[in-house]
Specification:
Layout: E1 9-10, H1 19-37, E2 42-52, E3 55-66, H2 72-75, E4 86-89, E5 92-100, E6 103-105, E7 130-133, E8 139-140, E9 143-147, E10 153-157, H3 159-162, E11 172-174, E12 188-198, E13 201-207, E14 226-227, E15 235-240, E16 244-260, E17 267-277, E18 297-301, E19 307-319, E20 327-332, H4 333-340, E21 342-343, H5 348-352, E22 371-372, H6 374-377, E23 389-391, E24 394-399, E25 404-413, E26 449-453, H7 457-460, H8 465-474, E27 481-485, H9 486-489, H10 496-507, E28 510-522, E29 528-530, E30 533-535, E31 538-547, E32 550-559, H11 564-567, E33 574-578, H12 580-587, E34 589-590, H13 593-596, H14 600-607
Parallel strand pairs: 1-5, 3-5, 14-19
Antiparallel strand pairs: 2-3, 2-16, 4-5, 6-19, 7-8, 7-11, 9-10, 9-21, 10-13, 11-12, 12-13, 15-16, 15-18, 16-17, 17-20, 18-19, 19-20, 22-34, 23-24, 24-25, 25-28, 26-27, 28-31, 29-30, 31-32, 32-33
Amino acid sequence: MPKKKKQPRTIKKSKLPSEKLLESLKQFIRTEGKEYLRDQNISSIGIGYKWKDNKPTKEISIQFTVNVKAKPDRLEALGTKEIPKFITIGRIKILTDVLERKYEQDFKIIREASVIDRKVHCVPIVPGISVANKKETAGTIGCIVFDRTNGTPYILSNWHVLHGAHGYIGDLIVQPGPYDDNRTDINNVGKLIRSYIGVAGDCALASIEDRSFEQEVLDLGVNVEQFADPELGDKVIKSGRTTGVTEGVVTRIHTIVRLNYGDQIGEKEIGCFEIGVDDDHPPENGEISEGGDSGSVWLFKNSKGKASKIMAGLHFAGEGVGGPREHALACYAKSVFEKLEVSPTPPKTLESKQVSGYNNLFLSQKIEFPKLYNTNTQKTFRLQNSELIHYTHFSLTLNKFRRFASCVGWNIDGNSIKKVSRKGINFTFDKRIPSKYQVGKDLYINNELDQGHIARRADLVWGSNEEAKKANKDSFYFTNITPQMSDFNQGKLGGIWGKLEDAVFDEVDVDDLKVSVFGGPVFRDDDRVYRKVKIPREFFKVIVYQESQKLKAKAFLLTQNLNQLELLDLNEFRVFQVTLAEVEQRCGIIFPDNLKEVDELAKDLEKRPESIPERKAVNSLRDIRW
């Protein structure tokens, strides 16, 4: 007697299917889903709980959404076919479910928002605010991500926000988007770097060139640090340009949706998952997303109901007008990060790479980094509980209220200086330090101010080729930059200030061609405020070297005339040779005793105070007493 053929069994469980079956369902949708989407009435196919009596059950199903749901006798007139009651995968019958639902990009239909600050020019930029290609309207900055190879930070949003039908790689990206502010000439934030639209998602990256940034998502208080695949029933939350903070629940997973991106692009099939309204936390106006929210990130909620640091997906579409129940669509975070070759955090190899800062044993005598007065210590930013922040060949202390370095110390090895180009290197924020403690590019636009290095780039590019290149790049962090009038910084009027280090090697037989330098701004309470930043009008520099094994230290003070900012009446800068004690008094720092002991100018003033009634400015390098 022949064996009876085993009949497929039907899944009717109150929990998710096994991992093996879930993988089979996902593979079915990936391989067969596109065929179903050829039916113009079917808008998406995914995995979700079957609905009954207008409520979700706990029965897992292959869920279809259709533009129009109709009885079987009307389907032919609509140009569509009946969806089967179940689909057999392996030996298991999977129930199907058919829902009437339309989707549209959350980008093209722009409605007025109640949260105005998301739609204005923001410094720093943060996730959750308006952004777009200059040829488009307005979407949302999702989060800040980092290149997997070199750690470069980028803005993450949607393809249809940063690229669009008329866009090209290299296009200007503006914040806010043109719909919110059409002054694209002053709102540039970067350029379109990479983009993708297809089954892996709707996503794109923009560089961050003219603005500082914070990683914390607006009104959610967390950074995106990880990502994970959502499951049915997961609670999620997002922060978008239009609807602000809204909460939802994952209602379908491993979904493919067909969206129309316009005449030039046409229909595209996007891999995604679906979010519905969280009935425990419904949105005020019933909408979990609206036009302009495209590009927002959906984060998992933690056990306390707050936003976690784990990203579920990238929002790109919402329920169409007149839909029966509010829903949103998001690309899988994992697919987006893989396709764009980025990570939510900088590469570990970059984070862990050790940097050697100022070396106090660089000369034959130990020269300690200057200490700070107690009053200055309280104003100093601490990185990993240290006042000193280290870079390649230099270190600094950072005043978190003035947002500039208070003192920078660096070493120069004249024997191994390399010729390294600065081409292609931009001034940038140190990602280890909150950007609110750094002054960025906005201060220097459309005026006579230069972004002036404290530790000179040319002083730092020594050692191995790798060291020199790293030091070259490190010198462009904003922590090593101060505002300096262009004629001072660019070496006009003889360029005395910029030539001080060179003059040591020219005028003195320096032992081993090694020099250590300390420099920085002089902070005064009455410094002028410009663009909400107090501009230092004085700078100090102390040059330390050895000649015939004898330690020497020379101190200089430069005063800069800031009236130029308004009057454009360019006056000369005055450079004075001063004592270390005067630098200490003006700057609130304390030099090591072995330096003060070799301050020849201080000794001369002690011996003959009446012989120098008035200090004279250093007008040429010949005036310096080496």
